[in-house]
Write a structure and sequence with these properties.
Strand content of chain A: 5-15%
Oligomer: homotetramer
Helix content of chain A: 55-70%
Radius of gyration of chain A: 31 Å
Strand order of the largest sheet of chain A: 1-2
Number of strands of chain A: 8
Shape of chain A: elongated
Number of helices of chain A: 19
Largest interface: C-D, 112 and 111 residues
Distance between the termini of chain A: 35 Å
Low-confidence stretches of chain A: none
Order of helices and strands of chain A: HHHHHHEEHEHEHHEEEHHEHHHHHHH
Chain lengths: 486, 486, 486, 486
């Protein structure tokens, strides 16, 4: 076969280079697992199996050097390049036997799933680190009060812990999504061959175990044709990125000179030698930018696959997989840099608290208190509180209790009397927080429980990650052992 | 409050109209559930509760007429319009009491989730109908053979059942995704109030039960801020759309005059009165086009939410929800029209089979047989088969068995002898199918089992859908009852 | 023809309703123009032409009532519904003559272009209003100094006029893009018929003139198949939206309590009756959100059209056009609301200036001055300035001139001497601005010129818009006249 | 400055590697041009200028070796790495002087525009080659008739030339868009410095000329902040990709075994050694897939930039530019591979013509002829033609003229008489084509003219491309000369 130079230049060279960096490892594992299975089923005799083992062993020994091979257009792709090496080592006849009951189609699909399961685990790990970091911050800042914004304006006091727990819970759901995506991905299509399976008595369960998959895929047509697992992986990443990205927008606001809540460590900012107070929070800017790129690339994959046939088709294969890779790589980079930058970051606790005391943002609690204490309607409580603020802003010197008595009489006909200190307590951000004790609220007692609960979930996710990786490692070991035992 | 005319024209009018058509029902249910809960907790006294019940009852009685209200700019939105009606009926003081311990923020989030859970169920239902239709077709066409394409070319015979089961399994995974999305959506944020919850002793479990949610959301900040559930809903829809859309591409190819496999019923085609054989398969074209629009709108929502703050913010709210609605509406339309168009469609079974017999697409099976029968290498089997085709194409009159003997001797030194009839059997599409019996293959015995398995899964999903809807209905009934019992 | 109920419900009803609201006017104009052309070419005799004119006149007289027609499935679409009305009025034979030398295909494409040219003009007009508003603000604020951010941090002083002129120039380029899109759109495909044109001696130039197009399209296949004009329209809108959206992000930051530069008028904010200082800048939030939706929908159209055949195909037609419409409608709403909200908005000039005086953000100008005055290297100037700040921050009481002398001697070996007042002038934001006089700089003299230049460009664009609309109006008038003269 | 290891790993290393491969050349040119300008303005003395020239010369001499530098985290980025080299060669003081009146901000924006103008030219060139190829095919196939599809069904005969001219005209408009994008891109932001310009008396026109730009940008704030030129570049590419992609969908259909119109040359297909007739048209599949990826990446850039501030911000810079690069690289690859694959491709002219003769797809022309010849209404002509087909399909042996006489009498009361040969001529695809002579039609005389017109436009575009490149080359030469003359 002789490829046209333009086809070599514009297509095959890129695909060869991508395959070398992304798929060499999985391809070798697949060769070995198929070899073991064929031998185990008696489709291949022991002697041939050992010859093939040697041929594959020689290639495995030089994977680093293979990275330097330049594509020369004399073979179609990495698969055929390896095939040539196998033929050279094992002879054409025996090399040919390795092709029994398989095809490049099912091999490709298997490789893609093997790499994507890694991508998902890496992204998951990055999100777990971020949760760890946020949980640490939440633990330290259960009583760090600041004004939560609604519609970009200070609205009500809350705590840093409360804010972060909202973000952490979102990440916990991201972990559920990523784990579900992993489960759908980690199925073995090997044995689907070109698209209809084979008449040879293969054992799909065997290669499944040897390659660390949890089960074989079902229908062989679908095994080759579908990429729903890939889209699910990307969706899980995309939802994560949007969610985390929204928090990054807040954190960047917190880093502005005007808001001045958050200070990143020196290693994560860009400083000006001449303006020492100018500390560009570039790590977070990059997190946003790299995360946006990842999200954009994820949607690019959807667009690329949309309106293609349901079958074996180039669109879901070699050209596209590198985009899936960079999507996940960028997603993981974005999440990782946030976790790293925040680990040593400091919050300007005093400034946050001061802001929470400005602008009467606790006043709804006063209204609520009046409603509760005196069975007023919400409207009446509201009206009294509004008038009180109005007066207090006009003349800050009159004691609040006095003002309250006056305005409450005006509104309801009855003067409501409070001690001034009690009133100030009612209006304090700390009280506002303290009293909010219903499920999910910011009261420190509640956030302490929530942190504990989230730690438990984090431990559960971490241990899932650990055991999942251990399964992959032990499958790889088992594959090694079975190859050795051929 | 006096809104600027441009703000009324460009924003508030659209939002009011959207709210009327999308959210009036949920809003009333929320009012009722909150009322029952407040009364149950003693936050509202029985007399007030009954006054409010009457006020709400009057509104509920005229929801149809409310659709004709034109927005006039004297109130901000539908919520405030209803509030005005409640005030008129119940008086300002008592009306005000309904606002205790809640906010437009948590009401909005609750409404969005209530509608989106319906959207997800409707889309799921459409996909279940499509599975039903495809299962029916698969059952009829377990032995309908046609050439599966790879890279747009006929590659190997398979059956219609086998093809469809690949598509059905994909839809089964879509159902898992849609159900998971439903579970994340069907959580109750009511009680998160503005964003920090409340100091009132509310009972979030109570409103949860009354509104048919499976549990309350957790952290109140996150309850207002997050839209991960919405993005998960859209992702599940998007993955479904891409998957089904790829099958539609195939079906449209099957409808072409040149391929001529599939004939849609008259009610789903656009005919030419002058060219009776021109039957435009417009129903499938619309399915593609409406499905594409749905997919595009789903990604539009991701773009809209990306890079907004994590908090209460307009971007995730009234302007955006109609786009979520049309995404799901269009997705459901696209899937429904496919199911409907295929239900009575017919396949040109003879033509499919004829194509499967062309082009020697079964020849790999001959090669495999030679390998199996004579322990040849894959390469040798391949070479013999290739030469055999070559000869047979040059001279079709020589019996194949004779050709085989000749070419096998040339390749291996030994003449392989078969009966001509056996050879023809080996090369027949039916044999090709029959012999493919490993997991997921097209052999009719296997697809029969696969169909049975898929029916079981369909029944399971249908019964989940039924019971989920029953829960929503019974919650609504319970809410009615509890309102009546106030 | 009898359509299946599911096809009616899921497809035809939506399309009929969309067509009524979007295309009735253009469709009638096309009927009239085609009628005039056919009569002019002698393809239709005068008597028939007059019968058809009456039939069309009766329909034109009741376009409002037609909006209330509910689709009943007895005809395919609006075109056939009108055809039925024409047949009823003119008889089948004469009605049939109106169909000579045309097809629904070229009619559809003509309608789409007629509506899209309006969409483009409306969006252009909104952007011109925004430029007018920004130019007004720039004129008022040529000397309003504030700290420009880089990487989210205050970096250098500039003026509001300078900032806005950057945004205005971007919008000027948007106008160039929108005008170019208009020119590509405003070509007449009528006469392309089904896709190959016709054998009748039609006059495409005639319908072109009567429908206000600037020229006929060329190749008839392409006239039906292409949607590049539509994608160019959407691209021009998308680039505009991203550009304006980035400015909106800044303006929303300017509205925060913490930055506090911008105050929207009361009619454009959401106030809290209880917290009078909480002024949610919802108009700008909606501008962001509606603009995001528009941008997302624009990309949705690209996705929908991608990977469809190049030909007459449903994907670019009735299902899609409403999405094009809402894209432009939302884009226009978003831009309009910004212009309206800013028209009466006020800037906190004092606060902006105060911020510009903080943080030594003018210090690079001191370094530059030292370089210019003493031929120092940039590095030396930089080092002296940095040390000066450092000292001044440690001890603000020492006169700066004294500090400078000391640190410059330390750096260069020579004490640089300035008067303290001169030094303060060098470091003042006003001086920083004043001295920046190279092309495009913020010096008030330059921004005055730039404003003048931008006004000239605005006038040019406004007069293009006016004359373009006048051409459409006069074409419509001419069409009326020629119809009357039949 | 000491960067955190995670920041180095996740951000700075990627950015350094990207900068080396994308921006080293432009950065050096900018250094040189700035040097020449500073010297020309007397801001730099001749001696210093020559020292800096030597330092830059040493770097320029080793640009290949620089590609091997691994990022080590001791400097921020490529700019600072070069700065270190310059300092080592020229000493810190003189090296510092090169920084006068500029900033990394304006340097970055200048580099981005320099690369993007190249990207646009390369893509334009690829599209011109494709037009050349298509024009060649159109010239050969002015009389190659095939059935044009509407709604996926054969509808009317046309010629390959006619089809391709539709596609060519679309590409001509793409060239207009790409050229417009180039003009907006090729403006020089150098001199905008950090964002407010400078107080130094720089000459922006000088660097503009030396760097091959057509003019300086205007407002300095906008010069740093805007990326509208980039979005315009991407839009022009995106519209091109969708348009070409739709043609590719048709060509892939033409390659199917079932349609069998188009045969790609051997070097562009994937063959099966065993099934010689299976020729996977992988070059076109890759064109679709790589083009889809490019389109997806283009929209990813829009998403990435959307909702960022309008200013100097990481989001539009180092992380994003590689995505712009791969978008254009992939777009150019996709277009190039189509042109290459089609250059030697062959059409199955006989099969196309045969198909055009099937299915009575010329029958509308018979109806039109009856209308023209006998002043029938369109409906009557239509009815006669439909009945004629109906009869002919029932009984092919009756001469058509006889059938016509009979059915026309039935419809109109008068028998229309034609010679049988004349009727067959009227119904022939060749006649159908021949008679379609109005503007843009398929008649060979018209397509001959259209081809000529398109050749003229191609020549014009090619000569624009040539002269634009010549300007860049001569600017580079002039820069070299002026550097030498320092």
């Amino acid at each position: 076969m002789k490829f046209a130079p333009e086809y070599v230049r514009h297509v095959l060279t890129d695909n060869f280079d991508d395959a070398k960096s992304l798929f060499l490892g999985p391809l070798l594992s697949i060769h070995y697992a198929h070899l073991v299975m064929l031998a185990g089923q008696g489709i291949l005799c022991p002697a041939d199996a050992r010859v093939l083992r040697s041929a594959l062993g020689a290639i495995s020994a030089q994977t680093v050097q293979l990275q330097d091979i330049d594509y020369d257009g004399t073979y179609e792709d990495l698969f055929f390049y390896l095939d040539r090496l196998i033929q050279q080592a094992a002879g054409e006849t025996i090399a040919g036997r390795l092709h029994t009951a398989r095809s490049r189609n099912d091999i490709d699909m298997t490789m893609y799933r093997m790499r994507q399961r890694e991508f998902v685990l890496e992204l998951l790990q990055a999100t777990l680190s971020l949760r760890e970091t946020w949980l640490e911050m939440a633990t330290q800042h259960r009583e760090t009060i600041f004004p939560a914004h609604t519609h970009t304006q200070p609205a009500q006091p809350t705590t840093v812990a409360h804010y972060l727990l909202g973000a952490i819970e979102q990440l916990e759901r991201d972990a559920v999504r990523l784990r579900a995506a992993y489960e759908v991905t980690n199925l073995n299509p090997l044995g689907a061959c070109a698209i209809t399976g084979t008449g040879f008595p293969i054992d799909r369960a065997r290669t499944t175990a040897l390659l660390g998959f949890s089960a074989p895929t079902g229908n062989t047509y679908g095994s080759i044709a579908t990429v729903d697992y890939m889209l699910q992986n990307l969706s899980a990443a995309a939802v994560t990125l949007v969610g985390v990205g929204r928090v990054v927008q807040d954190l960047l606001l917190w880093c502005t000179a005007e808001v001045h809540y958050l200070r990143l460590p020196d290693g994560f900012v860009q400083c000006s030698s001449i303006m020492p107070q100018k500390r560009n929070p570039v790590a977070l800017e990059h997190a946003r930018s790299i995360g946006s790129k990842a999200l954009g690339q994820a949607t690019a994959v959807f667009l690329s696959v949309h309106n293609t046939p349901f079958g074996d088709i180039v669109d879901t294969e070699d050209d596209l997989q590198p985009l899936v890779h960079t999507t996940f790589r960028d997603a993981t980079r974005a999440i990782s840099i946030i976790a790293a930058a925040l680990k040593e970051a400091t919050l300007d606790v005093a400034s946050m608290r001061t802001r929470a005391e400005e602008g009467w943002i606790t006043v709804t609690e006063l209204a609520d208190t009046l409603v509760r204490d005196h069975n007023l309607s919400f409207g009446a409580g509201h009206a009294i509180a509004a008038k009180l603020i109005d007066r207090a802003r006009q003349n800050a010197s009159v004691p609040l209790a006095e003002v309250l008595a006056e305005v409450s009489e005006a509104v309801t006909g009855t003067a409501l009397t409070y001690q001034d200190a009690d009133l100030r307590e009612i209006l304090s951000p700390a009280h506002f927080i303290e009293i909010r004790k219903t499920l999910g609220g910011p009261a420190p007692a509640l956030t302490a429980e929530a942190i504990e609960a989230s730690r438990t979930i984090l431990d559960r996710d971490l241990s899932w990650l650990t055991s999942t990786r251990a399964q992959l490692t032990s499958s790889a070991q088992r594959l090694n052992d079975e190859v050795a035992a051929l």
